[in-house]
Design a protein that fits this description.
single chain, alpha/beta, Rossmann fold, three-stranded parallel β-sheet, 5 helices, 3 strands, 11% strand
């Protein structure tokens, strides 16, 4: 659903990861211009992935969108303080996601 929502953004490719550890592996293996992650992931929580990403100089400025079912203020504050560029909750508007991602990539 996320890849389909962002399909109109030219020159983008999408890869999916089954869990947080796989997301980090994919990040290290190839160039990534934006990451969309959930907080609720197996193997490694989304905040842990986000902290890893922000701890690496090569990814400090890479946009990271947290897209999750957790709509509480504490989860949002934790994600933003860990370095999320944007926090959206599910269900989400595909148009809003595309618009906000375009803004992050410019």
């Amino acid at each position: 659903m996320i890849a389909k929502s962002l399909a109109n953004i030219h020159r983008t490719t999408f890869e999916e990861a089954e869990n947080g550890l796989e997301a980090i592996e994919r990040l290290v293996l190839g160039p990534v211009s934006l990451m969309v992650l959930d907080l609720n992931m197996p193997e490694m929580h989304g905040i842990e992935v986000l902290k890893f990403v922000r701890s690496r100089p090569a990814y400090k400025s890479m946009p990271v969108v947290v897209l999750t079912t957790r709509g509480d203020e504490v989860s949002q504050a934790d994600a933003l303080s860990a370095g999320a560029s944007l926090y959206l909750t599910k269900p989400f508007s595909p148009q809003e996601l595309e618009t906000k991602v375009r803004q992050l990539l410019t």
